[in-house]
Design goal:
With about 250 residues, this protein is α/β, with parallel strands linked by helices. It has a single domain, classed as NAD(P)-binding Rossmann-like Domain (Rossmann fold). The chain has 8 helices and 7 strands. It has helices at about 10-25, 35-50, 65-75, 100-130, 150-170, 190-195, 195-205, 215-230; strands at about 5, 25-30, 55, 80-85, 135-140, 180-185, 240. Helix 1 crosses helix 8 (about 215-230) and helix 3 packs parallel to helix 4 (about 100-130). The chain starts with a strand and ends in a 7-residue tail after the last strand. The structure holds NADPH dihydro-nicotinamide-adenine-dinucleotide phosphate (NDP). The site of NADPH dihydro-nicotinamide-adenine-dinucleotide phosphate (NDP) has 30 residues, from helix 1, strand 2 and helix 6.
């Protein structure tokens, strides 16, 4: 059985990805930051699908935590064939780019960009050393290309993930490791729960998502399974939009 490491797998999109991968026959490392009970519930669901789960607490903004996460992942399953950089946070308060402070910027860069940048480095080096023809998927956002001036910190981290994908795709191709960026649209999770009414209006009345429904974590999970099961063997550095057509607007 192959094994996957999914960051931020305790809730939302990461949970959906972990369960979809388990359903496709992957053992799963379930990483979380603070919600141990939710991570344990995901692990139990993974096991119900006949796969193994290892729960690992790690704050991705912390270098020592990233290193321990990788050590514990390899200790649990021997090899990791798939890394999914999913964990991410939105700003707790939106602020105009002319006034936004550094604290939120530093927090978002640490978790959303620096975390995956160096976690990918660690896992890529392990894949190369083990001769693993691995796959690496990074969850970015339509915020990678949409200029939302009241949450610029979030947008720059997601745009950075697009370049992260290209850089690692270019560097790792010779080692048989393919790298992909998955861009979800508006997905129903805790992250969007606080702005549900606004997004309901945008989706159902204004049609910003041409397929007029909320996306689900399962929608994103299916795209990751397609990558993980090697349905795109001759594609790397590729963007896959899972956004109900949002990018068409
Ligand atoms: P949620 O807020 O529902 O879940 C976030 C997950 O990330 C949780 O598992 C959380 O763990 C984990 N996490 C947060 N901080 C850290 C950290 N420092 N280290 C490790 N894990 C951490 O978010 P979503 O599921 O909505 O989002 C997942 C990803 O998808 C994010 O990168 C987000 O930017 C992106 N995205 C989301 C969209 C949406 O509409 N929801 C749209 C486009 C992209 P814990 O449970 O322990 O707090």
């Amino acid at each position: 059985m192959s094994a996957a490491l999914v960051t931020g797998a305790s809730r939302g999109i990461g949970r959906g990805i972990a369960l979809a991968l388990a359903g496709a026959g992957f053992d799963v490392v379930v990483n979380y930051a603070s919600n141990a009970a939710a991570a344990a519930e995901v692990a139990a669901e993974v096991e119900k699908r006949g796969a193994k789960a290892a729960v690992v607490h790690a704050d991705l903004a912390q270098s020592a935590d990233r290193a321990r996460l990788v050590e514990e992942a390899y200790a649990a399953f021997g090899d990791i064939e798939l890394l999914v950089n999913n964990a991410g946070v939105a700003p707790s308060v939106r602020a105009d780019i002319l006034e936004a402070g550094e604290e939120s910027f530093d927090r978002l860069v640490g978790i959303n960009l620096k975390g995956p940048y160096f976690l990918t480095q660690l896992v890529a080096n392990r894949m190369i050393a083990a001769g693993t023809a691995g796959r690496i998927v990074t969850i970015s956002s339509m915020s990678a290309y949409t200029a939302s001036v009241n949450r610029g910190d979030y947008c720059v981290t997601k745009a950075g993930l697009s370049m992260l994908t290209k850089l690692y795709a270019a560097r790792l191709a010779e080692h048989g490791i393919n790298v992909y960026e998955v861009r979800p649209g508006i997905i129903a999770t805790d992250m969007t729960g606080g702005v549900k009414e606004k997004y309901d209006r945008l989706i159902h009345e204004e049609g910003v998502t041409p397929i007029r429904r909320w996306g689900t974590p399962e929608d994103v999970g299916k795209a990751v399974v397609a990558i993980a099961t090697d349905l795109f063997p001759f594609s790397t550095g590729q963007v896959i939009d899972v956004d109900g057509g949002f990018h068409l607007r």
